[in-house]
Every structure is written in structure tokens, then in C-alpha cells.
Write a structure and sequence with these properties.
alpha/beta; binds calcium ion; 43% helix; 4-stranded antiparallel β-sheet; Rossmann fold; Arc Repressor Mutant, subunit A; 2 domains
Length: 229
């Protein structure tokens, strides 16, 4: 997790957009600026930023509509939004917060204030993510998805990233049968496992490491695998 957080800035006033981007970058963030709501929506879907700074008064699609669409789409719903708006748009701020925006900063604002809000919202969203991450304990097999650690009867076991991903995926869906293709699909992005045959290799390695707990991963003949219910 050494990646810099990426922040998407949707602001039609070029000078202001430049100032925001400049300050975010100086603070160590990756910042991308766009000037319309449509572009903002497109970029939110394309790059899945860690945070979005959203002006409400935009030409074309306005900020509230952007906010509504982001928060209604399960692909983008998790992206925190800080609304920025000019004086006299209080009603819009309330609407934005009700639509799911996380915070707001009234214009004009100092970069220092905006950066403080950015830090706070990023921290809150990180904490929420960590709370959502699961730690499973199954008959002495502990799978900690925060730390990517597995231990068996209290003894840590070293798994590769692919092995860990497969184990966590199966164990968090106990009793469900998955085909090899579904497993590949579920852990896509873990570069090593790209073929269905590779799943078999990973499972074999996993079972070896699980030792006495190997039987928790069951082969479902002709179909795939399942974590014992
Ligand atoms: Ca504007």
C-alpha cells in the first residue's frame, strides 16, 4: 500500500482547478483535474480514485447529478466525495450530503482547509475499509485479510499472494462450489494465476502448507473446489 492516493478534481474554473491540483500534488497526492461533470463521471469509473473533489456548479451535468450517479453505482459508490460550492448554494450542499457526499468546503476556501478535509476523509475511508476487511478463524486456521497473514494453530504459515487470495476467497464463501474459471476470475489482478490449470497447482501448494487442515479445501469432481462447510 505504498501507492499515493489518487484524487480526482472536478472543477470548471481553470485557475481554481490548477491551484487545487498544485496543492494536492505538493502534499504528495496524485491529482487529476477535469472540467465537466461528464468527464468527472467518466474518470471516476475509469480510474476509481481514492477521493473526489466535486464542484457543484458545472456547465452541463451539475455536481449533484454527478454525486447521485457515483453513489448509485456499485462500482463507484465507495469513492468518497468532498463537495465544493459557492456561497448561496447551501440547499445544494444539504442535497449533496443526503446523496452520500462525505464532506463539503464552501468557496472561497484556503488550500490549507481543503487539504485538512482531504486528509480527514481519506483517513475515515481507510478506517472503514479496514473494519470491513475480515479475519476468519476456522478450526484453528486464522486468515487475516488485513495483514495478508495465515496461521495454523497459532503458528504463522507463509503463503504466496495467489495462494492467500484463493484461500481467502474460498474460505469467505464456505460451502459454495466454484469452478476453476470462477476462481481465476475472482482473484484477477493477482498476476500469477491466469489459467484454470494454474488454480490446480496453487491448490496443491496450499494443501501442502495447510497440513492437517488440507481437507478444508475439497475437490468437487468435474466442477471445481469448495471450502468445507
Ligand atoms: Ca463552478
Amino acid at each position: 500500500m505504498t501507492n499515493k492516493p489518487t484524487i480526482l478534481v472536478v472543477e470548471d474554473e481553470e485557475d481554481l482547478r490548477d491551484i487545487i491540483i498544485y496543492n494536492l500534488k505538493r502534499e504528495g497526492y496524485d491529482a487529476i483535474g477535469v472540467e465537466t461533470g461528464e468527464q468527472g463521471l467518466g474518470q471516476a469509473n475509469a480510474i476509481k480514485p481514492n477521493l473526489m473533489i466535486l464542484d457543484l456548479m458545472l456547465p452541463g451535468m451539475n455536481g449533484l447529478d454527478v454525486c447521485r450517479q457515483i453513489k448509485q453505482d456499485s462500482n463507484t459508490r465507495h469513492i468518497p466525495i468532498i463537495i465544493v460550492s459557492a456561497k448561496g448554494e447551501e440547499a445544494d450542499i444539504v442535497s449533496g450530503l443526503e446523496l452520500g457526499a462525505d464532506d463539503y468546503v464552501p468557496k472561497p476556501f484556503s488550500p490549507r482547509i481543503l487539504l485538512a478535509r482531504v486528509r480527514a476523509v481519506l483517513r475515515r475511508s481507510r478506517e472503514a475499509e479496514e473494519e470491513n476487511a475480515m479475519s476468519l478463524n476456522i478450526d484453528g486456521l486464522v486468515i487475516d485479510s488485513n495483514k495478508f497473514q495465515v496461521s495454523i494453530d497459532g503458528k504463522p504459515e507463509k503463503l504466496t499472494k495467489s495462494e492467500f487470495s484463493i484461500l481467502f476467497f474460498l474460505a469467505s464463501h464456505r460451502g459454495w462450489v466454484f469452478t476453476r474459471y470462477q476462481i481465476v476470475d475472482a482473484i484477477r489482478g493477482e498476476q500469477h494465476v491466469v489459467t484454470e490449470r494454474a488454480v490446480d497447482v496453487q491448490i496443491a501448494g496450499l494443501r501442502k502448507k495447510l497440513g492437517g487442515h488440507a481437507a478444508l479445501i475439497e475437490t468437487v469432481r468435474g466442477v471445481g473446489y469448495r471450502f468445507k462447510e
